[in-house]
Amino acid sequence: MTSRISTRAIVTFIMICAGAIAWNLQVAGAMAQGGQQVKIPPTSDYQFRKDYAAVEEIKAKETDIQKRAEVLLNWVKANPESRAIPNAAFLYGEAVAVAMKAGDAQKALSMIQTFQGVAPKDTTLLTYQMESYAMTKNWPKTAEIAEKIYAGSPSLVLENQLAGIYLQMGNADKYVFYAEKVMAQVPIDKTYSMALQVAQIYAQKRNMEKAIEYFSKVMDVYGDKVPAGVKEADWNVTRSIAFGVLAADAYQKKDLPKAMELYDKVTRFNPKSEDAWYFIGMAKWQGKDQKGAIEPLAKAAVINGKTYSPKAKEYLEQLWKAEHNGSLDGLDAVLAKAKTDLGIV
Questions:
Q1: Is-contact 128 91, C-beta < 8 A?
Q2: Domain of residue 245, residue span
Q3: Is there a single domain that holds both residue 153 and residue 83?
Q4: Looking at the domain assignment, is residue 163 inside a domain?
């Protein structure tokens, strides 16, 4: 029986033969010119497969991680242009991780630097290097390596790490830069502590618009409840500060009802807030509620602070005299009640 061979099969066969002939001609030409075999480029796919197999063979043969690291290092020295260096670095990193787990950051750094000395372009061990510097609390070097990693492969995880690194360094500008990147991607109920730190930094820089933005975001979520894992007493301090900033902004903008509402929240979390009671009294006075201003001003006065208490006492006496024909009779009783209300002995 006569068999049929398809046209496609014939074409494929011819192409294979042509490829083999071309390769043989290249080899023959090279041998004719130099009498030597063709040198395979170290970055070719063919060489990569060979190098990858060599690295895997080292992994299979040398089960001791530290000895394997030495063998891998020598292999990299002998093959400085190989595309399989990242594979060797990955396996070498296992020995670095052992040193880090044992708490020996200096050994880990020494191993990393040795590897980088023979493979300066490889970035596989940078994460280990960053973490090792962090273990030694060398924050400038930690930041330097983290920035290098981030430049090549930005991520939310790295942005969060960089924010923490710069916080440790006391670099407020860099901390805010990365913290805002994190907060743009993560809900405020998960980043409230970061938001508070950023708000305080902006407040210190007198950028009240940004400070208010972040204080508002946190209080919108946690103004009436306490975050998990936080002591209520500690959170009350935070709330009194945040609401105090928001209240001061409202007062400055002449939004007296909102200012009083916010200052009321401050006194709820910090009953002995000298400024809160003072500005509640002043807001009521400016709102033509002179009688209503007497109680909060009395409380501000008896707190006996250095900033607003003296002024509160001065204005309280003016109001009292205006309401009692120029006399201060009866004011002592008001002041005594204010002390009782605030628990001041």
A1: no
A2: 187-270
A3: no
A4: yes
